[in-house]
Amino acid sequence: MPGMPRSLRLLPAAGHEIVEHARAGYPNEVCGLIAGRQGMGLVVFRGQNIAPAPRVSFELDAQTLLRQMEFEEQGLELVAIYHSHPAGPEEPSPTDVVCAFYPEAAAIICSLAGADPRLRAFSIVDGQVSELEPAWISEAGGGSQETEPRGLCKSHTKY
């Protein structure tokens, strides 16, 4: 399908930023945007969850959504939208699937339900969910290369 993410590349710092945001917002769900280029997430924008029931749902605030126009003017694109599941699994809920309004962006979910936080990424297009395997990118040595962050695994990334 055109416009849907096929892969997701992230700097390890982006994963850590999402987990820290989820921990800081606990017991509520947190949410935000990840901007980048060519499917590579470079910058995390923490959002405010303005949902009426923030412990079980999320809705990004207008100010964070407007940041997309700002970073697009700077040549970046929306790579992913993230949110947390404080007490649930790191997979899209039925509500997450219905409310996936940006098919070109990956959906990243951080779960705090287990002993260790876990991240998973998905493509959600027209109600169809496909898991994305994130590639963690290191910029050591001036070039980008795929790397396995210490203490993290790619699938169901655990922190």
Task: Give your account of this protein's structure.
- This protein is of the alpha/beta class.
- The chain has a domain at 1-110: Cytidine Deaminase, domain 2, CATH 3.40.140.
- The chain is built from three helices and ten strands, in the order E-H-E-E-H-E-H-E-E-E-E-E-E.
- Strands 1, 2, 3, 4, 5, 6, 7, 8, 9 and 10 form a ten-stranded mixed sheet that branches.
- The longest helix has 14 residues, at 12-25.
- The protein is globular.
- The N and C termini lie far apart (32 Å).
- Mean pLDDT is 85; it is low at 140-159.
Mean pLDDT: 85
The CATH architecture of the domain at 1-110 can be named as 3-Layer(aba) Sandwich
Q: Determine the CATH superfamily of the domain at 1-110.
A: Cytidine Deaminase, domain 2
Radius of gyration: 15 Å
Strand content: 25-35%
Spans of at least 5 consecutive residues whose pLDDT stays below 50 are: 140-159
| Major sheet description | 10 strands, mixed
Fraction of residues in H or I helices:
10-25%
Overall number of strands: 10
Structural class: alpha/beta
**Anisotropy-based shape:** globular
Cα end-to-end separation: 32 Å
CATH topology description of the domain at 1-110: Cytidine Deaminase, domain 2
CATH C-level class of the domain at 1-110: Alpha Beta
Number of helices: 3
- Secondary-structure element pattern, one letter each: EHEEHEHEEEEEE
